[in-house]
Design brief:
This protein has 6 helices and 2 strands, in the order H-H-H-E-H-H-E-H. By secondary structure, it is mainly alpha-helical. The protein is elongated and about 70 Å long.
């Protein structure tokens, strides 16, 4: 279970509660909750919303946000597979 989802359930919050406190669309908070890519500013808004709701400051690392334009360490550790494209020649008519 993703940390944001786990935290939300422990604190008896809904995704809608967090979205309203963060001033973000519900879909953005849900995307963060399931591990989708969000911007750094959206992640900041979510952590600020959680601070308002719980009185506790959470870091990006604790909530494991996948931030756009930030290297994903898991992906970076995966082996690279290079495929050679098959070249097709189109004969002029």
């Amino acid at each position: 279970m993703r940390p944001l989802m786990k935290l939300r359930r422990q604190k008896n919050l809904t995704t809608k509660h967090i979205a309203l406190a963060a001033g973000l669309p519900l879909r953005t908070v849900y995307l963060a909750e399931i591990g989708g890519w969000i911007s750094k500013s959206e992640a900041e808004q979510i952590t600020n919303g959680l601070l308002r709701l719980t009185g506790i400051w959470y870091t990006f690392d604790e909530l494991m946000f996948n931030l756009k334009d930030t290297p994903n360490l898991w992906l970076a550790q995966q082996p690279t597979i290079i495929l050679n494209p098959i070249k097709h020649r189109v004969q002029p008519s």
